[in-house]
Amino acid sequence: MTSGKIREVALRHFARNGYEGASLADISAEVGIKKQSIYNHFTGKDELFFAVFRDVAAREILFVEDYLEQSGSQPLEQLLYGFLNEYRKRYEREDDTKFFLRMAFFPPGHLQREIVDYCNHHIDQQGELIKPFFKAAAASGDMHPDVSIERASAAFTAVVDGMFVEMLYGDMERSLKRLDASWYVYWRGVRNS
Question: Helical H runs in the chain?
């Protein structure tokens, strides 16, 4: 049995039950191996968790890169709002996104520092990937001249974070309502009318 299969099953367990609720016994039973066999691939639950977390974080960045590559020719308003909407849909259907957000907002206590550092790096990467689109919009006069690229990017990250909180705590209807309101105010501030 490969470590890949163990990580795949562990992702579902961590996504559903969190770190504390996921058990190596349940993961190994679903994989079809004895619990002790997990230790042939991972030193323990923490190492397995971080392997899953790193895999998921890499796939989340790939989602951002793919979205921006496919949608990069759209006007900034459509690009950014589409990004928010695609991430919302992704949360509905992907264990990766559910797990990543759950761990970003509710990391296991003893692993909090490492998770927070990793998530901050992730947010920084995401911001760097989006900045060229703000720069292009500023150069073409589509962004308000009083709004810097750094400020527009940081504020957009806050809109994304707000949407993530609503997805974690609320339902889809509530998250759509909040997304619509925060987007409206954000875009009015960024665009050059």
Answer: 3-21, 24-31, 35-38, 45-71, 76-93, 95-105, 112-139, 149-169, 172-190
d(CA 193, CA 187): 10
Could you tell me if 41 and 6 are in contact, meaning their C-beta atoms sit under 8 angstroms apart? Answer: yes
Two structure tokens written together for 179: 């997304």
Q: Any idea what DSSP says for residue 33?
A: S
Domains and CATH numbers, the chain: 50-190 (1.10.357.10)
CA gap 121, 41 in Å, rounded: 27
Alpha carbon distance 80, 95 (integer Å): 23
Nearest alpha-carbon partner for 53 in 119, 126, 113: 119
Structure confidence by residue, pLDDT tens digits, 52-106: 999 999 999 999 999 999 999 999 999 999 999 999 899 988 889 989 998 998 8
What pTM did the predictor assign? 0.88
